[in-house]
What we know:
Chains A, B: Residues 441-473 are annotated as: Disordered. 2 copies of one chain form a homodimer. Chain A has 13 helices and 21 strands. Chain A has helices at 30-39, 67-74, 89-98, 123-129, 175-188, 216-230, 254-260, 275-283, 290-314, 351-354, 381-389, 403-406, 472-487; strands at 9-11, 43-49, 76-79, 82-83, 133-139, 159-163, 172-173, 203-205, 208-210, 212-213, 236-241, 321-327, 358-361, 370-372, 376-377, 417-421, 425-430, 433-438, 442-443, 446-447, 451-456. Chain A has an 11-stranded mixed beta sheet, with helices on both faces. Chains A and B meet through helix 13 of A and helix 13 of B.
Amino acid sequence: MKKMNTKRIRPLxxxxxxxxxxxxxxxxxxxxxxxxARQQRPNILLIVSDDHGYGDWGDALKDASMPNLDRLxxxxxxxxxxYVSAPICSASRxxxxxxxxxxxxxxxxxxxxxxxxxxxxxxxxxxxxxGYATAMIGKVHLPGVxxxxxxxxxxxxxxxxxxxxxxxxxLQHNAAAHESFQEKLLKYHPExxxxxxVFNQPMQVNDSRKDQEGFSTELFGEQARKFxxxxxxxxxxxxxxxxxxxxxxxxxxxxxxxxxGIKPIADWDPAxxxxxxxxxxxxxxxxxxxxxxxxxxxxxxxxEIGRILDFLDERGLRRNTLVVYVxxxxxxxxxxxxxxxxxxxxxxxxxxxxRVPFIISQPGTVQQGMVCSNLVTSLDLLPTFASTAGVAAPxxxxxxxxTPLLTGTDLSxxxxxxFWDVGQQxxxxxxxxxxxxxxxxxxxxxxxxxxxQLTNLQDDPGEKQNRIEEEPEKAAELMKLYRHWRAGxx
Amino acid sequence: MKKMNTKRIRPLxxxxxxxxxxxxxxxxxxxxxxxxARQQRPNILLIVSDDHGYGDWGDALKDASMPNLDRLxxxxxxxxxxYVSAPICSASRxxxxxxxxxxxxxxxxxxxxxxxxxxxxxxxxxxxxxGYATAMIGKVHLPGVxxxxxxxxxxxxxxxxxxxxxxxxxLQHNAAAHESFQEKLLKYHPExxxxxxVFNQPMQVNDSRKDQEGFSTELFGEQARKFxxxxxxxxxxxxxxxxxxxxxxxxxxxxxxxxxGIKPIADWDPAxxxxxxxxxxxxxxxxxxxxxxxxxxxxxxxxEIGRILDFLDERGLRRNTLVVYVxxxxxxxxxxxxxxxxxxxxxxxxxxxxRVPFIISQPGTVQQGMVCSNLVTSLDLLPTFASTAGVAAPxxxxxxxxTPLLTGTDLSxxxxxxFWDVGQQxxxxxxxxxxxxxxxxxxxxxxxxxxxQLTNLQDDPGEKQNRIEEEPEKAAELMKLYRHWRAGxx
Lengths: 490, 490
């Protein structure tokens, strides 16, 4: 066993102060719970949010709160250095699904092929094979949706309720609204430019599309609870992927806006404006209300997390359900998200693009109320879930089984090195050091940090200083690691 | 035709001042010579020296002179920005031989496979196929000599006189001396550590090894003249690859040392010292005489160049022979070489490791007495020779046909970008800018320049300043070019 990495883990609240680093494995009744877990394999609930910024939660969220996310964190481990494998949704979700750097599947940026090959085993395939009832609820957004295997029912999910694309209208989910918008749009721009204004298609429910009424965050939460309620003989694996807090955050229940006196934005009307003009504002609301919209979405997201936790508590499932919360990438600066104290945001390889809210909880099994700074990544979830289900992870897997860290038997578990590459940007982190490169300036509201940057994240978490000239040895070491990793992908 | 790049080319001496940039194509009798060339294809003499430093010639060579190399330059074009594709002998020679970045053949550093594959066509194969009599005289040093195709007679040479390895004793070329040394060495170090002290094997003459008497520089010059003298019906292609001025420069004719009062170093004697101690001194003569030894080798090299030029003049072959002079890489700082005003030396990707003395001459056809700063490289020689021979270069070729530049019909010919990669170091040059990276500090006497460096070579030819932080756009642009090139190698 490796040396315990005690400096990186601390109790979250004073109430847990008794649990010093040396006695993590003596949590009350944890051994009982583990015995139960051996008898009945734990359920797994993976909650994935969309573009939830590192700073838009907890102490950093100064203009609002997410009490239910706090409640989840207090019941488990809050990872302060939890990463995803990409700063954009589609690539990140593919890494999460396969436990592999998605570049191994040829995926770097939007439009790459997704699960085009059978070579890689998916998280739900492993869990279904292990006897789990599996459900995908919400946003899929695998790259290259044209490949049949990218459809959730084709990569291991028994049940699918949600949408395949990048975004979903929060309020409209019916064919009539969708057709009406597309019709207007075609008239305006026959070449379909501006298409992504509104994704108000009906929900995909398994093989068919169904008109639905309601707010997407609530609909997804409800569906997850329904599925979990029905599962009885088998343990369940539910991936609950909210579209909150992705673009179009202005799409909030009218009564919410009214109550708070927040100015609404009407959906696009061709009589009023060019679709691209609207698009710019709706997707990237550079307006006084931008932050208010985002806080609205966070509010509903938190409420839904609360309902899920209440459900698990009420059903007595909490201690036998491993609950994970992770965002698919960093907050988008364009929609008012904060990644404080990190630099940059979605689309970039600054910490703000790739370090995300990351919580793992299972009272009685996983350490409770802990804050842990070990380097972990969404790629670790597949092997950790496999371990939870008592089966082997696939041979081709870049993640670590976090179980020994979660249960306190080996606090040193974590990555020494992590890598990112979206084609036009790459980064490597080794220990506290990070080398970052971008060949583009990035989008105007998310500058990618052109050129090379070497940072010591311990000294400079906001990536303000570039030490590439000052520390050539470190730069060389990191570049060597990156090149080795890059060469080994193929 | 591209715009003439007049600023990059200037007459070498006042005598050529009449030849302004605008009238390069009106050199006396050049059109006659070109007509002759069409009737009878020019011979090609490629002189390759070993580790000849950029600063160890011409005005920069303050402590000696190479009048015959000056004479060659005055009769042709002196390229001030002529490069090789590697800062070490073996890889550089493979690039020269194939006209391809040797990385395409999997060759980055010592020990890679050389011409292991038949996929790449060699320079002598093209010329032999075009009807040339071909000879390889001197040092081969292709990587991975174990592959049959690395032997000169197996890649297009009709005749071979020289040696296959990295180095040759300048004075001893006989089996008895070689065996005696190996015997002593085996006694001292059964594991053969220290083996490369002395390569005093006999000369390889086609299929057999023959004991020879004489100084290697003179022997190689003599053999080249002999071959050229015999060639009559066919045009000839001779690659004359001197081992001067590689390591062990102390191995000079005793009378030369005596005349100048330079202290000799005796070859290794096991009774006197550990072979590695000797090795350090003999290969890397960190002693007061180091520069004197090197100047001695340069002196003999220059004399031999003079004999070759005299031979061509006397036989009336000069106007019908394309003569090229190039070093295989930059000067080795370890043996007293200078690369002034460039930084670094052999083994490194500083300019001193890869920018070399580079001359092309054919009076009456090639511009005379010109100094040209266009970016050219040893990879250009294969397509230029193919053009000279009136045949097509292979499809897979990274070089440019320099003929239009040489004859003054298009002075813009030259590379916009050049790339280097030896595994642990890479570099890219685009226009005046260069991005360089090394993951090693390099050998103690040839520091490789750890980490990243961005330089504007126009402003800073000695690579003193690192502008990587100041010019992130330029760094990104160059890194992008490098990554694209690197990805395209396979």
